[in-house]
Amino acid sequence: MELQTLLLFSATVIPLVCTPGPDILFISSQGLSGGMSAAWKANLGIILGYMTHAILAALGLAAIVATSPLIFNTIKWVGVAYVAYLAVKMLLSAIHAREFQVRPISTQAVIGKAFLTSFLNPKGLLVYFAILPNFIHVSESVAIQSLILSATFISSCIVIYGVIGMLFASMHNKRKYSDKNRRITEGVAGGMLTFAAIGLASS
Q1: Nearest C-alpha neighbor of 42 from the set 102, 153, 116, 103
Q2: How far apart are CA 156 and CA 192, in angstroms?
């Protein structure tokens, strides 16, 4: 695959990566409420979701989803419901006062939620079956080209999401630990996820 093709593909998908959506808002909310460790765990889960998309695209299964509005809409609304569930859960936690304790964050829980957030996000599927095919040449191996382009997209996500996660995690690290601040940060994080769910539903 030519370098020019990769650069053009990068110039196309990077603005999409930077567009606020469920992925960015989930990582931001985790960084804000859980610090640097939670932000990177969320980033890992998001990337695992996109890696799954990449494998499906290479196998041609994404094309099947593209040809079925029912399957696509099902994925979309399951994603909306899941992000909305995360938002409500965080907002309810922010409403109720409780004795503040610094508890270790479950790695498996954060990664799992992040994985579902990206895997159920139609934006990722659109990248793979609406944008990526335009950069593939039929004279070469479609699967290999798909994996190379997917790696380019995922690398962009790792860098951009990593920077965003660290930015919000730095806000977490600067605050004093108290129940009041916990409720504020969880309220802000819940609001961000609510915005993500609304945006996903209206897309």
Answers
A1: 116
A2: 22
* Predicted TM-score (pTM) of this structure: 0.70
Which tens digits make up the pLDDT trace of 169-182?
887 766 555 667 66
Rounded distance between C-alpha atoms, residue 111 and residue 39, angstroms: 10
Domain spans of the chain, in order of start: 9-96+104-202
Cβ burial 74-113 (10 Å sphere, 16+ → b, else e): ebbeebbebbbebbeebbebbeeeeeeeeeebeeeebbeb
Residue with tokens 């159920």: 120
The tens digit of pLDDT for each residue in 75-131 reads 667 767 776 887 788 788 778 766 544 455 678 888 998 998 888 877 777 777 667
Radius of gyration of the chain (CA): 18
The answer to whether 26 touches 193, Cβ cutoff 8 Å, is yes
Closest listed residue to residue 130, CA positions, set 77, 187, 67 = 67
Amino acid sitting at position 69: P
Q: Does an H or E element contain 174, and which?
A: helix 142-174
